[in-house]
Amino acid sequence: MLFVYLFFFAKQVKEFLFINQVPADFANINTIFLSIVMEAIPFILLGVFASALIQSFISEKTLQRMLPKHAFLAMLPAALLGIIFPICECAIIPVVRRLIKKGLPLHVGIVILVTVPILNPVVFLSTYFAFPHNAPVLYYRMGLAFLAAMLIGSAIYFIFKDKNIVKDSPLSHHHHTHQRNRWIQTLHHASEEFFDTGKYLIIGSFIASLFQTYLNRDILVSIGTNDSIAPAVMMGFAYVLSLCSEADAFVASSFSSTFTTGSLIAFLVLGPMIDLKNTLMLFAYFRKRFVIAFLFLIFSIVYGLVWILQAFVL
């Protein structure tokens, strides 16, 4: 109601509240924040509905039948599962944990964990729309994510081959929903996930708009154009912002004027694989040693790949 009212009477409200005296910085934060949120919401909605449909209609048995038995061959289709299952990174951790407990090899589960939030149609579209004039960002994002996942999966296979890394504490995850109609269940999951992801998007967009308004442009430009530091800075940024993979391309594109293409790709590849909120979830589901090794692997492999990309391709 408020939105509709303001849509028609914004001018009168503005005059009444002396909005013109608001500092320019606040107006700037507001504009950047709203533009990121408004662009991202349709993609998040798309993502949560797809995720909820999978949750309600596809069993783990189906997934297991689809994957080859060979240790390394199984990683290929696992990496491409996102194309059929667009699940956001917040929703994938419980799914992967359940699959590993049901006998899916750990390294295959980890490949699913890191690629599904990136290599999926929703993220492909959102990146395409966020970078309409910079197609390489889209293709390198997808390519590097696939390569990084293969390397991470292989490393995990050799390090944690026969170790049990899943915590036994069963976190309650909606066991009561079986009795209900599957469509109602889907709506229930989608709305729950939307509000869950939505709050991270809002916090992330707000921090991004603060950064862009108050961070000294000269410092940003000097960091952003440095091939060694910029990717590391953007990876740290992606980690802290904890954006949803369906929305992060819009935040990244708002930095495209100050940061190199390589560092934007680093931001877009690392963010969906691991971030602050994900790390907390991983500690709840998996053993500490595994989570720390996993973090180290992701950061070093993504940085290494971006460095190679910058040195030889971009």
UniProtKB/TrEMBL annotation:
Keywords: Cell membrane, Membrane, Transmembrane, Transmembrane helix
Principal subcellular localization: membrane
InterPro entries, A to Z: DUF318, UPF0718
Membrane topology term: Multi-pass membrane protein
Location in or out of the cell: Cell membrane
Keyword Transmembrane: yes
Pfam families to which the protein is assigned, alphabetical: ArsP_1
Parts of the chain that traverse the membrane: 32-58, 70-96, 108-131, 137-160, 219-243, 249-270, 290-313
Family membership noted in the UniProt record: Belongs to the UPF0718 family.
Protein name: Permease
